[in-house]
Amino acid sequence: MKLRLETAAMDALTVRLFDVIDERNMAWIMAADTALRHAFGDALIDLVPSYTTLLIHYDCRAMAFVEATSLARDALKDLQPADTQNGQLHEIPVWYDESVGPELPQVAKRAGLSVEQLIERHCGHDYCVFALGFAPGYGFMGLVDEDLATPRLKTPRRRVAAGSVGIADRQTAIYPLLSPGGWNILGRTAVPLFEYARRGEPLFRPGDKVRFMSISKAEFEAAGGDTTPLEERA
To answer: Where is each Carboxyltransferase domain found (predicted)?
Structure first.
């Protein structure tokens, strides 16, 4: 870990702890999150942890830039990694099917696997939630096994269904609501991520883990899932 402070705005600092994305970073990122929240107290407007950095948005009426920089350095001086076991594990049921996951065959072929093997591999890892962004409730998760890593689509879709589960490079994610997107879609979940976010209680938080579970079409429908093929939404 190499601490660097970078100016993000007149009232914001970027704390850079790492240069490479790694699940092991999160123990340090979450420890820094706790330390900085405590140090800035009421002067903190927002604190956004991510893969390798944290963004500190502070009240510049309460403290000057030099004071904020000094406060951040002091808060992180003797930082020790947090216990990542404190993050919540979320089990997310997914209906993997080509009708709602049109890239299933391509991703499987690229990895030299059958579709069934791909599904088993995607479900066989607990993914770390690195950051929230793009849309309310959207969690960027990883890291996907290297041989499953797949580049984003050359031409993004204009309409990706809510609940779509996809892969882009070594990341995986769930689209919380109908939106454009260029990830490789493998299946769909009925878990209403956007509804949690709209209530101000996002289901996923940085440091949490997500485990996907393959379910049948009947189970998906019973949970309220929409089986409309993705192509009809494109």
So the answer is: 3-206
DSSP-derived 3-state class of residue 36? helix
* Residues 42, 36: Cα–Cα separation, whole Å: 11
184 near 167, Cβ under 8 Å? yes
Q: Are 5 and 15 in contact (CB under 8 A)?
A: yes
Task: Spell out the domains of the chain, with CATH numbers in brackets.
Answer: 4-85 (3.30.1360.40), 87-233 (2.40.100.10)
Distance CA 219, CA 221 (A): 5
For 138-191, how does the pLDDT look when each residue is reduced to its tens digit (9 = 90+)? 999 999 999 999 999 999 999 999 999 999 999 999 999 999 999 999 999 999
Q: What is the CA radius of gyration of the chain?
A: 19
Buried (b) or exposed (e) across 11-49, using 16+ Cβ within 10 A?
bbbbbbbbeebebebbbbbbbbbebbeebbeebbeebbb
Task: Show Cβ contacts of residue 176 under 8 Å, excluding neighbours closer than 6 positions.
Answer: 135, 136, 137, 138, 162, 193, 194, 197
